[in-house]
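Hi R.,

As promised on Friday, here is the backbone we talked about, encoded as structure tokens. Could you run it through your design pipeline when you get a chance and send me back a sequence?
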């Protein structure tokens, strides 16, 4: 297959901009954005809403390099099946625009840069966690699970849950229960998110022999699993409020609202498991859900939010006290 990739569809860059674009595409930037949002959420929670701007920039840049490294290695490893699937055939490696060995050098450089920045500007724990994220994604998910186990996404989802740990460790130098809860939330969110996509492109996975759950078990069992994981995930998102008390009422309201919509969409898929439009709707919403959930964590952690909530609570308490006094005077009169 590699010979086919090298000879049948090789393309050449015409200028430096195209070279940059090809290497940029290797990093899968659309995936990285969501990872950075979860990293930022971990940092804001750990810093109680007051993050050092320089540390934030360095950590997000390092996270970008680490994720880009992992995604580039994934592109190298999956170049054979990427060539078969029309959706991915024109990625840089299967199209011949970037040679695998050059992509590997690029991935190593990104990983070294990420580790160095986190070690110097944050701490060794954050740097090690970033490297563990790369290793888990490349070795456990891409190499071991993706083509060999129907549970590939369930276990492999842990790779995408490392960023908030990196963010938390960058701020505090350690990992609390709240940090591990963030890890667990993303771990539980990954199967519904990715299985919805897998239902949409089931035939492509079947064509290249990747044993995604819809390919092996069918759409209906997959929809049931999505429903179960969704119901399990929602209560864990609220544990940041109680018993951990890391987030407050603003986050709780946001999490409940977003969770209710997630449950509704998962239920709709459960009723129509073969409807790709419903699966697409759930997939797209799952991305928005995680982005808004993390945004809710950030907003709730801000000192200004605490001041507003406290002031509102004081006014509400005062108003209720006045109301009770008025009612009491009426009855006494």
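Update: got your reply. Pasting your designed sequence below so it's all in one thread:
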């Amino acid at each position: 297959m590699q010979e086919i990739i090298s000879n049948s569809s090789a393309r050449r860059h015409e200028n430096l901009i195209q070279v940059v674009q090809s290497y940029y595409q290797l990093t899968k930037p659309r995936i990285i954005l969501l990872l950075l949002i979860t990293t930022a959420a971990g940092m804001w929670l750990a810093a109680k809403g007051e993050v050092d701007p320089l540390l934030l920039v360095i950590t997000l840049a390092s996270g970008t390099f680490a994720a880009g490294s992992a995604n580039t290695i994934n592109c190298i490893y999956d170049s054979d099946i990427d060539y078969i699937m029309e959706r991915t055939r024109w990625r840089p490696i299967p199209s011949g625009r970037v040679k695998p060995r050059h992509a590997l050098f690029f991935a190593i450089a990104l990983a070294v840069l990420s580790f160095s920045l986190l070690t110097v500007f944050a701490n060794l724990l954050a740097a090690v966690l970033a490297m563990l994220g790369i290793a888990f994604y490349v070795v456990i998910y891409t190499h071991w699970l993706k083509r060999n186990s129907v549970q590939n996404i369930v276990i492999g989802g842990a790779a995408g849950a490392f960023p908030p740990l990196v963010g938390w460790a960058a701020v505090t130098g350690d990992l609390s229960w709240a940090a591990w809860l963030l890890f667990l939330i993303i771990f539980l969110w990954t199967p519904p998110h990715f299985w919805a996509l897998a239902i949409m492109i089931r035939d492509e996975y079947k064509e290249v022999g990747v044993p995604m759950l819809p390919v092996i078990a069918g759409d209906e069992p997959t929809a049931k699993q999505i429903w179960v994981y969704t119901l399990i995930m929602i209560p864990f998102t609220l544990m940041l409020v109680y018993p951990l008390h890391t987030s407050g009422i603003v986050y709780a309201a946001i999490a409940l609202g977003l969770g209710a919509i997630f449950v509704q969409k998962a239920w709709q898929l459960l009723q129509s498991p073969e409807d790709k439009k419903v699966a697409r709707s759930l997939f797209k919403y799952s991305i928005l859900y995680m982005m808004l959930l993390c945004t809710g964590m950030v907003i709730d952690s801000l000192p200004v939010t605490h001041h507003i909530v406290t002031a509102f609570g004081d006014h509400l308490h005062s108003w209720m006290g006045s109301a009770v006094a008025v009612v009491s005077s009426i009855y006494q009169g």
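One thing I noticed while checking it: The chain is about 80% helix and 0% strand.

Thanks again,
M.
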